[in-house]
């Protein structure tokens, strides 16, 4: 488990949110304002994709003791950096976002495995078993008027 704030910030810095909006949502998604930034575990806030810089992210990781060797990122102890993102199967936007994040982090030498699960299994894994490293899911109100029940 990585407890490094720099690691989480580097991950955030490497993910291109503009591309996610443009490609996955055909430009119809907007990035959150500075007031409502997405959060990454342990209270670290993510920066907007306008600050995307794989080089700066790699520098931040190196400052924290990570090193790149033959295209693979290793931590201070010499372990290859690898983790999984779980998301619900059948959600094409989330599956595509996970793959794009996998590609962005691959530029840093990080291996990301995308795991799709049926929705009940995903909820069980993240809320009862706590058996995940990163999760991507969303809830939505399908009613146009949120007051209507």
Structure description:
The structure is a single chain. By secondary structure, the chain is α/β, with parallel strands linked by helices. It has 5 helices and 7 strands. It has helices at 5-14, 17-24, 54-63, 92-106, 119-129, and strands at residues 39-40, 44-45, 67-69, 72-74, 82-88, 111-117, 134-136. The strands form 3 sheets. A 3-stranded parallel β-sheet has the order 6-5-7. Strands 1-2 form a two-stranded antiparallel sheet. Residues 34-49 have low confidence and may be disordered.
Distance linking N and C termini: 42 Å
Number of distinct helices:
5
Class of secondary structure makeup: alpha/beta
The percent range for helix content is: 25-40%
H/E element order? HHEEHEEEHEHE
Apparent shape: globular
Strand order of the largest sheet: 6-5-7
Radius of gyration: 16 Å
Largest sheet: 3 strands, parallel
Give the number of DSSP strands. 7
Strand content bin: 15-25%
**What's the average pLDDT?**
82
Low-confidence stretches: 34-49
Topology (elements, then pairings):
Elements lengths: L4 H10 L2 H8 L14 E2 L3 E2 L8 H10 L3 E3 L2 E3 L7 E7 L3 H15 L4 E7 L1 H11 L4 E3 L13
Parallel strand pairs: 5-6, 5-7
Antiparallel strand pairs: 1-2, 3-4
Helix pairs in contact: 1-3
